[in-house]
Specification:
By secondary structure, the protein is an all-alpha fold. The protein has 19 helices and no strands.
Length: 336
């Protein structure tokens, strides 16, 4: 009985009810799974993951626990792990429509919009809900089918838009972004901010950078990093400082970014950025150290590799000139 109605309660009430259920039935997998979901809603991700794993230890086939674990991975910024957990959950219980939507959304983020579109269209045959329409719009946008994506959003009623304000605004913002419409995209991304989902802040910061609104981009990146620190968040913050000629701040932000990189390529780009900003500070010897670390990691990125090698040559030239400077000043060497 303690589990009944948990989904209809507020976050605090649901959490209290789920905790009481676990106290009453510590060996009940469903109770632990319910508590895991309540902890996700409360933003307590480490505790949520622990409870989801407790539930799965008791019942490996509990779909709700796999779904909760997927949500934890998603909010931690690990889409591959989230995808695997969501697939297990939906495979065990195809009626989990919210989890099915999250599965499709994760596929979009991983560059598989066609599979996501198929999932949403199948879902809409049995669950004609705003969330599925919004998700289908995002899948279509990711394929460049912007008019069809807009048509999906236009089918929503004002009430549905209001109930799904964050996700609908995000979908609308992405369409504006794809069309290069900076101001409508910025307005819609701002409406989509929910205090939890870091990618919305990152997308907003990217458009603000493109619009040369650097102070706003710096602020948004700070808000994103307060939710969860990411290499992308610090890198964009550094880029905003860099483009507004605040090189000391740029170096500090870039140095926070590269250790959080998710790949060798991203790490190389981060090290390159530290080197570029340091060079702009007039410290070629220090810049050269960073560039020499970063450039070898950029072989798969021809443009960055070319820029990095050119900047390394420039840094070496300046280091050599600085080495010659004392001899020039005392007249023992003449420069051409």
């Amino acid at each position: 009985q303690q589990l009944q109605g948990v989904g209809r309660k507020t976050t605090d009430e649901a959490l209290a009810a789920a905790q009481r259920a676990v106290e009453l039935a510590p060996k009940d997998a469903r109770a632990h799974g319910c508590l895991a979901n309540a902890l996700v809603q409360a933003g307590r991700l480490a505790d949520a993951e622990a409870e989801a794993r407790n539930a799965l230890a008791l019942d490996p086939g509990l779909a709700h626990a796999h779904a909760a674990l997927g949500r934890v991975h998603e909010l931690h910024g690990d889409p591959q792990a989230a995808l695997a957990a969501y697939r297990r959950a939906v495979g065990l219980d195809p009626t989990l429509v919210k989890t099915t939507c999250r599965l499709a959304s994760t596929l979009i983020n991983l560059g598989e919009p066609k599979e996501a579109e198929a999932i949403y269209r199948n879902l809409l045959t049995r669950w004609n809900d705003a969330e599925a329409h919004i998700g289908l719009s995002q899948a279509l946008t990711a394929q460049g089918r912007l008019d069809a994506a807009q048509a999906c959003l236009d089918e929503l009623s004002p009430e549905e838009r209001k109930r799904n304000v964050h996700t609908e605004s995000f979908a609308r913002a992405v369409i504006h972004d794809a069309r290069g419409e900076d101001e409508p995209a910025i307005a819609a991304f701002k409406q989509a901010l929910d205090g939890r989902w870091v990618p919305t802040y990152i997308r907003l910061a990217m458009v603000l950078l493109r619009a040369q609104r650097y102070d706003e981009a710096i602020k948004v990146c700070g808000e994103a990093n307060a939710i969860r620190e990411t290499g992308e968040g610090f890198n964009l913050r550094g880029l905003a400082y860099h483009r507004s000629s605040r090189f000391t701040e740029a170096v500090a932000a870039y140095k926070r970014a590269y250790p959080l990189a998710s790949s060798e390529m991203d790490r190389g780009l981060g090290l390159l950025n530290v080197g570029l900003a340091t060079l702009r500070l007039g410290e070629p010897a220090e810049a050269l150290k960073w560039l020499e670390q970063g450039v070898p990691l950029l072989k798969g990125h021809p443009e960055a590799d070319t820029i990095g090698r050119a900047e390394m040559r420039e840094a070496r030239r300046k280091v050599e000139l600085l080495g010659l400077l004392p001899r020039v000043l005392d007249g023992s060497v003449e420069l051409d």
